[in-house]
User: Fold this.
Amino acid sequence: MASHQSRPSRRLAPYAFLSPAVVLFALFFALPIGYALYLSFRSVQVKGLGLGSHARTEVWAGLSNYASAISDPELLAGSGRTLLYGALLVPAMLGAALLLALLLDTPRVRLGALSRLAIFLPYAVPGIVASLLWGFLYLPTVSPGYFLLDRAGLGGPDLLHGNGLFVALANIAVWGGTGFNMIVIYTSLRAVPAELYEAARLDGASELQIALRIKIPMVLPSLVLTFFFSMIATLQVFSEPMTLKPLTNSMNSTWSPLMKVYRDAFVQGDIHSAAATSVVIAAATLVLSFSFLKLVNNRSDGGS
Amino acid sequence: MHRRLALATAATLCGALALTACGSSGSGSDAAGPAAGPVKLTFWSWTPNMDKVAAIWNAAHPDIQVSVQKQASGDDLVTKTITAAKAGNAPDLLQAEYQALPTLVSNDVLADIAKQTAGTKDRFAAGVWQQVTLGSDAVYAVPEDTAPLALYYRQDLFQQYGLKVPTTWAEFADAARQLKQKDPAKALTTFSANDSGLFAGLAQQAGAKWWTSSGETWKVGIDDAAGKKVADFWGGLVKEGAIDNQPMYTPAWSKALNDGSQIAWVSAVWAPGVFTSSAPDTKGKWAIAPLPQWNAGESVTGSWGGSTTGVTTGAAKAGHADAAAQFATWLNTDPEAVAALVKEAGIYPAATAAQSGGALAAAPEFFANQPDFYTQAAAIAKNTAPAAWGPNVNVAYSTFKDAFGKAAQEKGDFSAALTAMQQATVADLKKNGFKTEG
Amino acid sequence: MSTTLTDRRRTAPAPGTTPGDAVAPPRRTAWIPTLVLLLGAVYCLIPILWVVMASTKSSGELFTTFTFAPGSGLLDNLAELSHYRDGVYWQWMANSALYAGAGALLSAALSGVTGYALAKYRFRGRTAIFNILLAGVLMPPITLAVPQYLLMAQAGLADSYWSVLLPSIVSPYGIYLARIYAAAAIPDEVVEAARVDGAKEFRLFRSVALPMMVPGLVTVFLFQFVAIWNNFLLPYIMLGDDHKFPVTVGLYSLLQQGANAPALYTLVITGALLSVIPLILLFVGLQRFWRIDLLSGAVKS
Assistant:
């Protein structure tokens, strides 16, 4: 009787399990995305001076928002800056996260829980505070760091202009994001059966060899995951440059593609242009990230 | 077991959630007619302690109850308000800066309250009132505070370096050069590209009219001769290194004001509040003086900021326009209300009667060394050049920050930055279908 | 049972089980890894230490003393913060706890059931559904905020607690993480064995799979809690009534009081520091739950 009942229920079960996520996703992601798409094909037209009631009407704009988004040199320049920033950030952050996760997973490490907590903490600091914080740490006249360098007779680097700006931005992101990625990798390290290591240890493998030959291959799926999400986060970089923007003349309001979206939508009040630019960014992100996933698909598929 | 605990917690939280969500009185305009008890009005404002001022009204007017919902001021608040209005969720009353009024009117956020504010016009200076009418017969808001520009300088350090308080911009430039010569580590002031309002005020003083309309056509005059004069003046000072080029309102700037690295600041009448928090050690050492002039003997100034109280179209649709306009008028003209605004919120009232005596009889605590602070301020305010705002100030302002930020950092061409601002503003108007010239 | 999740290396060595420990003396500290980890911790803590110190300074001290020396204003700052608008700060904290607590709990539950289904069943549309859910992260939240607001307003939910809570429940990150974890942590043999015993699918998930996924779901809960706690744009757009603000939007309104009013830096810094404390407590508290895999391993065998 059990087998008689279990067959159809087993076929239907995954759909039942997935239905809440699908419904919520449809309501709070798919529908707004669809709405944003719709808005990207619209624009506002004004009658006369635009001051009376109903002076503004929304009209069909065809592809004109897309045409101006793609032809805006600032979007391209911003993308270039973003890629440069990502090339600096992603290897540094993920390298640090992997190293720290492996170290946490090493036997006989002391104060592991404390270090883990400390490294994760910056992730919990809200953006507003980060902005104030880095203002005090990066501006030479108020920074304790520059104060010490000055005492030592050394000049500090200019972190708010030119190439220093990329380092300053990447540092904020490394500081804020390493802990998150470390925890993701560490969590999957802990899902690795311990017997695998014990066998290797019996064979006389060192901890380094175990890390390189067993652990890193075992956590490859989570490395792919963190790389994938870091890549998307880089392409959508927004909060770090917004943090530094008030402090320096060298950061404009379209420094990264998403800052341009923010400026269009929230400062200049043009949701239509912002939506079109977002769709362009999302499409570029889609192409990049899914070709990456395709590339590593065989290994990353952790499913049985 | 843990799952059960988790579910129980979730259920409790959701229960609490449902209660709070249902129990909360909805914002925006309640559809209920006047017969259903007191009219309830919501008021979005960023002014500190506005709730305390509203409490005075609420005590005296049981039939019209105003609840203040404090907001963060800034560019994005205009967008938030417009979005809320589009969805029919705007508050009944709204604090808005003068330069945001055309944008808000253009997006159908603000109602015309000319009828309800009939006798109010005479309470305000003509140049201020003109900004809330947008030059039409309509009235879109009641002025709350104004912000005439003045020159603040360190009395002690000016004396120490033998500097004369400049009355013209030429003298201002000389003072900057003299100070640099005497002490290269100090600067008279900085040119900051991160607040467009200050530059707009300086351009007003020089006679610029950034937006004007004739018939159905907008004319944008950002890069006219007056604006160019101001841009070139500051660009020249930055280029020769007579003043600093780093932004205001950073910790480094606060320190420079506090430790005397910068000894003057062109700012508005609200500056004492900023000094109090940014340069607390210099209390009693600053003084206010009229803004330097382009032509000796004149006494014109511009404004930097200032705000109004408007009534939304949402309130009008719900039949609350009269009640809301009554509150807006009371807030900004009633002596008791204005006195409370000055005392609780530290604003400089727009109502002319309130600008001398009363709550403003004594100087701000930070300027105890200058007992006639507000008398001087009132004299400075008397001749404020009119402002001319248009429907896309936000675009011009955000372009200003980018273009002038770059020019200031490179010590480059300020008037090219001004042209970039003009072009971006005109292009945006054209894109939206406005008829433009200039 | 060949595989267990039990991680014996971190517990007191069970007698006669771990030959590795017999080779190396169990008490010797691995110095280099410990030091590198502490170095990482110091790098992360220094800026936070600055916030802690800054919160003790009065507004005068904030712009005059730039060392890490503590100031004298902590108690004043706390008192002033508590008095601001009749203690609205504590209301913001309670709101944040509600949004983040309920949101993260529901999010972890949703991620768990979704990740389990995606990892442990083979069915038509599996890859497609997974890819679509994942594609949700592609559209920047900034763009979605305004459409989400307009749709919420249509549903009559704008400016309500629901408007912030509901969109926070679906987390593509959480689903991905839960799927990876379920794939690695739940052996197929266990699932099959339970099926042979006649367990129904939901009961199988609830009493066999879920306990094994707890450490992964705790991680999802933690991430989502922090993400909602620090979320700014969504509540900023959705909420007009400042008594419903979470602490981020509230602090922003303290910072942006208009040009004529001084920004309340000291209050913001103190408020921000206090707002991080619950996150720290949560993190410390949840460390214990990460060990729960030990229990489930024991139950299994």
In short: Chain B touches chain A through 46 residues (CB under 8 Å).
